[in-house]
Amino acid sequence: MRIERDVQDLRAVQHTAEVSPSSLSDELSVSTELELVEEERIDCIHSGHRYYNSFAVQIETLKNAASRGTSAASGRESLLGTASNTSPSASAQSCRPQAARNNVKTFISSSTRLKYLLNLFFEEYNFLYPCIDRDAFNLQLQCLLQHYSPDQDCLYLSDADPEMLIFAALTCMVLAIAEHIEADGHFPTDGNPHERIVRGQAWYRESARLLSLSSRHADKIINTVRLFMLETLYMLMRESFRRSSQVLCRAVELSFSLGLNDESTWTSCSCAETRSRRVLWWTIYFFDRRMAYKLGRPYMIRDAEVSVADFTADIRAMESSRAHLPILLIGDLNASGPIASTPLDCDWIHYLQFNIGWGRLFSKAWDSLYSLTSPRAGIIEEIEIMEALLAKLKRSLPPGMKWQDPVSSSSTEADVPDQKVRMRLVIYTRANLLQMLIRNNLHLRGCEKDCEWDSSRSDRSYTTQVCHKLAASTVQAVVSYVRTRRRERSFGTYATLCIIESLYYMLSLPSTEDNIGAFDLEATKTLSLEQAWECLNDLSRRQLTIATNALKVLKGIIESRIGNQLSLGEQPTAISLNTQDRQPSVDQVMINNVASQQEDHAKTTGCQDLDFSIDPQFTLPVLPGPEFDDESLMGTDMGIWSTERMMYT
């Protein structure tokens, strides 16, 4: 009906003497343009490569030649320049009409809750996965909130302003991640954690809606890349790994299109924008390697196609001057004062540089040890070369970035900020897991070389011992850190993945032939299983689904090792971690062991404020099922939350 009305209006206009843009804009429906958006053609997709004429460049060149316009070279430069060198603000101004009506409603509100969630996101995640420059984000947020209507408690944006729509979608994605983090259930005032999970899903849908309204211009706006990266992170938190991989592919494709892989195209950018793009690119690069590492698929970004400086020069400059980079004070959403500050200091730069080195080393290990046609796969000399490169990477870290157990460390370490402790832990666990991946290649691919397999018993025995030691150290480090955390859920997904991977290497490798060594390995396995049980037990009570699922698997492993009557192949009718209705074989043994360890630890440290013991009354939490109505009104401690209107009432 709307299209028919617009056609009638156009026919009426044809009979008038004059046609003005104002008459058309006032008469026609505002949604006509969105409803008639054409599908993207292949000649609209270009590679962003300076030295390669993609099909889109060829089409543009032929158009210029047909119209006797500019030369082919200038046509290619103009096409690439639009995507590479246009800043977000300039891009928005170029496609913004002089008279735009605010006809897109979104429920981002200027409230204390908004400030709290944004601050939570930047404190918990952005420093580990730096997709957003916080300074620039707050400036754009101030511009966004200028459209806020206090009477209706919502924002009205123009569909002709794609830059603002994309930023609003980015803000909604930040809120989705923050709500997911906040669904902790740790404090009595948190209400029902399911409600916060549903609110995160609602913000995610709102972000997707806003992105769809600006789809015609989204591929020219760099905030779209940031949006895709945050969606990748959110999907990982939701355990949707396939969707996360698909979104990351879109981010990589768009980053090449915008020239993020080539800093020579950033000539028109300011120093702050250049720094932001450099950090964003290396975050994309690292995510590409991490996704390949987790899913076992080839990585997408080839090192030969990267022309962006890493942070080696920054580290050398800081070390030579023995001074940190200037602290970026993040202002409040208004001019009343700062709400937080994030120091872009030497430790953070070292963390970013380690991620780059980790990604480069993983690509070497993949090509040499795990690619299908690699001639060096399974050869101990190649494995030792990769280990030597990893050792060199770890030696490049300053002493302050080396992992130290927060429970057993000195009193001076107690004053170390949590962000720095977490960066230490992430570096430590990533290095350990990568070394186990490299070492495990001897067992996975060494059997392909029959002549060498029988002569490498000592190498295989050494590999088993190394992987057991690294796996046990990784589990212990993760558990020690979680014990000191007040908000375990924000780190729970990463912690659970580390525990699962460590236990895999510990339990899947063949046992050593040495009786004494075999006894030590079995003792290490038992201790690591106890620590993993303790940590996953606590994380599952924080409504973390991945921890609950891992706990179910771990329960079967422990019962099979202890010799319980229940076998892994059976289908238990009401199996949970509640041991009150059956013999306390496996659970009671675990409870006694962990409880005795905690009593000894409490006597030594005097720290008894957090209870991480295995509760004998604990049952697996009931997770939201199909019967959970995520569109209903939910009562919370802050009022009634409407997922339809995306606001508290």
TrEMBL record:
Pfam families: Fungal_trans (PF04082). The keyword Metal-binding applies. GO terms for biological process: DNA-templated transcription. GO terms for molecular function: DNA binding; DNA-binding transcription factor activity; zinc ion binding. Residues 81-97 have a biased composition (Polar residues). Its main location: nucleus. It comes from Rhinocladiella mackenziei CBS 650.93. Keywords: DNA-binding, Metal-binding, Nucleus. PANTHER family: HALOTOLERANCE PROTEIN 9-RELATED (PTHR46910:SF3), TRANSCRIPTION FACTOR PDR1 (PTHR46910). InterPro entries: AtrR-like (IPR050987), XnlR_reg_dom (IPR007219). This is Xylanolytic transcriptional activator regulatory domain-containing protein.
